[in-house]
# Entry
Amino acid sequence: MDEPTITGTDVLRWTVKARNKSPHALSLIVREIEGVGPGALEDFAVGKVDLGVEALQALTKILHPHAEFDVETGMLRSANKAPVISMPANYPPSIGDPTLLPTYQPPRPYSGFNLPPSPKPKKRPGWLGGWL
# Structure
């Protein structure tokens, strides 16, 4: 059975619904978005109304400052466009044979726990690219 697809609009809707629990939160959000009133934002949080693309993009900038709303997919994506900087292949520099170091101590016998393997991280709902 397939899981339902969680879109970026769903993530924004849930975030607005969570923010609605603090007093005056919606009025502070509405000040930043043109053409949307507090009632429309409450209706959006409940699922009665869909907001326009411009309103969703503005809402994303307010609620998730490091994300963008992707219009084609309807998902959120990271706003970071910087290329990934990798470490050089020879970093850290090799120290050679550690047994020749003056501070070398042989390892102690292991009597630790047998821990189960860590679970694989799940896909982050409503986002492109998951957690990684």
User: Anything to note?
Assistant: Residues 33 and 58 are 6 Å apart (CA to CA). The mean pLDDT is 85.
